[in-house]
Specification:
Blueprint lengths: L14 E5 L5 E6 H10 L3 E6 L6 E5 L1 H18 L5 E7 L4 H16 L3 E7 L8 H15 L3 E10 L2 E8 L1 H20 L2
Parallel strand pairs: 1-4, 5-6
Antiparallel strand pairs: 1-2, 3-4, 6-8, 7-8
Protein backbone atom coordinates (compact mmCIF):
# COMPACT_ATOMS: atom_id res chain seq x y z
CA UNK A 1 0.00 0.00 0.00
CA UNK A 2 1.22 3.52 -0.75
CA UNK A 3 2.87 5.55 1.99
CA UNK A 4 0.43 8.40 1.47
CA UNK A 5 -3.25 7.60 1.01
CA UNK A 6 -5.38 10.35 -0.50
CA UNK A 7 -8.66 11.11 1.19
CA UNK A 8 -11.57 13.51 0.76
CA UNK A 9 -10.48 16.70 -1.07
CA UNK A 10 -6.99 15.33 -1.84
CA UNK A 11 -8.49 12.96 -4.43
CA UNK A 12 -7.91 14.49 -7.88
CA UNK A 13 -9.68 12.14 -10.33
CA UNK A 14 -12.95 13.50 -11.81
CA UNK A 15 -14.63 10.06 -11.91
CA UNK A 16 -14.37 7.45 -9.13
CA UNK A 17 -15.56 3.89 -8.63
CA UNK A 18 -17.11 4.09 -5.16
CA UNK A 19 -17.61 1.35 -2.58
CA UNK A 20 -19.65 2.04 0.56
CA UNK A 21 -18.74 1.12 4.15
CA UNK A 22 -20.51 -2.26 3.86
CA UNK A 23 -18.52 -3.24 0.75
CA UNK A 24 -21.31 -2.68 -1.79
CA UNK A 25 -20.35 -1.07 -5.09
CA UNK A 26 -22.17 2.18 -5.73
CA UNK A 27 -20.83 2.43 -9.29
CA UNK A 28 -18.89 5.18 -11.03
CA UNK A 29 -19.65 8.60 -9.55
CA UNK A 30 -18.21 12.06 -10.01
CA UNK A 31 -15.77 13.23 -7.36
CA UNK A 32 -18.23 15.78 -5.96
CA UNK A 33 -21.09 13.24 -5.75
CA UNK A 34 -18.83 10.79 -3.90
CA UNK A 35 -17.65 13.49 -1.47
CA UNK A 36 -21.25 14.58 -0.80
CA UNK A 37 -22.27 10.97 -0.16
CA UNK A 38 -19.39 10.53 2.30
CA UNK A 39 -20.28 13.77 4.13
CA UNK A 40 -23.94 12.71 4.41
CA UNK A 41 -22.84 9.54 6.17
CA UNK A 42 -20.31 11.48 8.29
CA UNK A 43 -17.47 9.34 6.96
CA UNK A 44 -14.40 9.88 4.78
CA UNK A 45 -13.75 9.09 1.12
CA UNK A 46 -10.47 7.13 0.91
CA UNK A 47 -8.64 6.32 -2.32
CA UNK A 48 -7.97 2.56 -2.19
CA UNK A 49 -6.59 1.90 -5.67
CA UNK A 50 -5.30 5.07 -7.36
CA UNK A 51 -3.85 3.22 -10.38
CA UNK A 52 -7.17 1.68 -11.47
CA UNK A 53 -9.22 3.30 -14.19
CA UNK A 54 -11.29 4.96 -12.74
CA UNK A 55 -9.63 5.05 -9.29
CA UNK A 56 -11.36 2.98 -6.61
CA UNK A 57 -12.47 4.84 -3.48
CA UNK A 58 -14.20 3.60 -0.36
CA UNK A 59 -16.44 5.42 2.08
CA UNK A 60 -15.04 4.57 5.53
CA UNK A 61 -14.17 6.00 8.92
CA UNK A 62 -10.56 7.13 8.29
CA UNK A 63 -9.38 6.59 11.87
CA UNK A 64 -10.63 3.00 11.98
CA UNK A 65 -9.38 2.26 8.44
CA UNK A 66 -5.89 3.63 9.17
CA UNK A 67 -5.67 1.73 12.48
CA UNK A 68 -6.62 -1.58 10.82
CA UNK A 69 -4.19 -0.97 7.96
CA UNK A 70 -1.34 -0.20 10.38
CA UNK A 71 -2.08 -3.33 12.43
CA UNK A 72 -2.12 -5.46 9.25
CA UNK A 73 1.23 -4.04 8.11
CA UNK A 74 2.76 -4.75 11.54
CA UNK A 75 1.41 -8.30 11.44
CA UNK A 76 2.80 -8.83 7.93
CA UNK A 77 6.22 -7.55 9.03
CA UNK A 78 6.20 -9.79 12.08
CA UNK A 79 5.25 -12.93 10.15
CA UNK A 80 7.61 -12.27 7.24
CA UNK A 81 10.37 -14.80 7.59
CA UNK A 82 13.82 -13.40 6.97
CA UNK A 83 16.06 -16.11 5.66
CA UNK A 84 19.75 -15.91 6.31
CA UNK A 85 22.65 -17.62 4.66
CA UNK A 86 24.28 -19.72 7.38
CA UNK A 87 27.83 -21.02 7.05
CA UNK A 88 29.52 -24.20 8.27
CA UNK A 89 33.32 -24.49 8.05
CA UNK A 90 35.60 -27.46 8.54
CA UNK A 91 39.08 -28.62 7.60
CA UNK A 92 39.95 -31.58 5.40
CA UNK A 93 41.29 -33.63 8.32
CA UNK A 94 37.99 -33.57 10.22
CA UNK A 95 37.10 -36.82 12.00
CA UNK A 96 33.93 -38.78 11.20
CA UNK A 97 32.34 -37.88 14.54
CA UNK A 98 33.13 -34.17 14.24
CA UNK A 99 31.77 -34.16 10.68
CA UNK A 100 28.58 -35.81 11.98
CA UNK A 101 28.18 -33.13 14.64
CA UNK A 102 28.67 -30.34 12.08
CA UNK A 103 26.20 -31.98 9.68
CA UNK A 104 23.67 -32.16 12.53
CA UNK A 105 23.97 -28.39 12.89
CA UNK A 106 23.60 -28.01 9.11
CA UNK A 107 20.44 -30.16 9.28
CA UNK A 108 19.06 -27.84 11.99
CA UNK A 109 19.75 -24.77 9.83
CA UNK A 110 18.03 -26.43 6.87
CA UNK A 111 15.08 -27.42 9.05
CA UNK A 112 14.68 -23.75 10.00
CA UNK A 113 14.51 -22.89 6.28
CA UNK A 114 17.94 -21.28 5.89
CA UNK A 115 20.36 -21.77 3.05
CA UNK A 116 23.72 -23.12 4.19
CA UNK A 117 27.12 -22.35 2.70
CA UNK A 118 29.47 -25.22 3.47
CA UNK A 119 33.19 -24.43 3.35
CA UNK A 120 36.06 -26.91 3.46
CA UNK A 121 39.32 -25.05 4.01
CA UNK A 122 42.78 -26.19 2.95
CA UNK A 123 46.02 -25.70 4.90
CA UNK A 124 49.55 -25.86 3.60
CA UNK A 125 50.30 -28.94 1.49
CA UNK A 126 46.63 -29.95 1.43
CA UNK A 127 46.31 -27.59 -1.56
CA UNK A 128 48.15 -30.17 -3.67
CA UNK A 129 45.28 -32.64 -3.06
CA UNK A 130 42.17 -30.70 -4.08
CA UNK A 131 40.30 -33.95 -4.83
CA UNK A 132 40.07 -34.70 -1.07
CA UNK A 133 37.83 -31.66 -0.58
CA UNK A 134 35.62 -32.62 -3.52
CA UNK A 135 35.25 -36.16 -2.09
CA UNK A 136 34.31 -34.68 1.29
CA UNK A 137 31.76 -32.37 -0.36
CA UNK A 138 30.26 -35.29 -2.28
CA UNK A 139 30.05 -37.32 0.96
CA UNK A 140 28.13 -34.48 2.65
CA UNK A 141 25.74 -34.16 -0.30
CA UNK A 142 25.20 -37.95 -0.44
CA UNK A 143 24.56 -38.14 3.33
CA UNK A 144 21.67 -35.68 3.03
CA UNK A 145 20.31 -37.42 -0.09
CA UNK A 146 17.02 -36.10 -1.48
CA UNK A 147 16.39 -33.80 1.47
CA UNK A 148 18.61 -31.05 0.02
CA UNK A 149 19.12 -29.25 -3.25
CA UNK A 150 22.58 -27.98 -4.18
CA UNK A 151 22.16 -24.31 -5.15
CA UNK A 152 25.85 -23.79 -5.90
CA UNK A 153 27.97 -26.76 -6.91
CA UNK A 154 31.27 -27.30 -5.06
CA UNK A 155 33.89 -24.93 -6.45
CA UNK A 156 37.37 -24.03 -5.42
CA UNK A 157 38.06 -20.41 -4.41
CA UNK A 158 41.43 -19.45 -2.97
CA UNK A 159 42.24 -21.88 -0.17
CA UNK A 160 38.72 -23.17 0.30
CA UNK A 161 36.05 -25.26 -1.38
CA UNK A 162 32.54 -23.76 -1.16
CA UNK A 163 29.07 -25.01 -1.99
CA UNK A 164 25.56 -23.89 -1.03
CA UNK A 165 22.63 -26.15 -0.14
CA UNK A 166 18.99 -25.60 0.76
CA UNK A 167 16.08 -27.80 1.73
CA UNK A 168 14.26 -29.48 -1.13
CA UNK A 169 10.51 -28.92 -1.38
CA UNK A 170 9.89 -32.61 -0.61
CA UNK A 171 11.73 -32.43 2.70
CA UNK A 172 9.93 -29.27 3.77
CA UNK A 173 6.55 -30.78 2.93
CA UNK A 174 7.39 -34.00 4.80
CA UNK A 175 8.53 -32.03 7.86
CA UNK A 176 5.34 -29.94 7.86
CA UNK A 177 3.24 -33.09 7.50
CA UNK A 178 5.07 -34.78 10.39
CA UNK A 179 4.64 -31.68 12.57
CA UNK A 180 0.94 -31.53 11.78
CA UNK A 181 0.63 -35.23 12.64
CA UNK A 182 2.24 -34.60 16.05
CA UNK A 183 -0.18 -31.73 16.75
CA UNK A 184 -3.16 -33.93 15.83
CA UNK A 185 -1.88 -36.69 18.13
CA UNK A 186 -1.63 -34.19 21.02
CA UNK A 187 -5.19 -33.02 20.41
CA UNK A 188 -6.57 -36.58 20.38
CA UNK A 189 -4.54 -37.74 23.40
CA UNK A 190 -4.10 -34.79 25.80
Amino acid sequence: MAKYTRLNNDIRAPQLRVIDEEGKQLGVLSRNEALDLARERELDLVEISPDASPPVCKIVDWGKFNYQRTKQLQKNRKTAKTLEMKQMRFGLKISEHDLGVKMGKVAKFLEDGHKVKITAFYRGRELAHKEIGFKLAQKVIDDFGDTIVVDQAPQFAGKQLNFVVRTSGKAAAAAAKAEKGEENAKVKNP
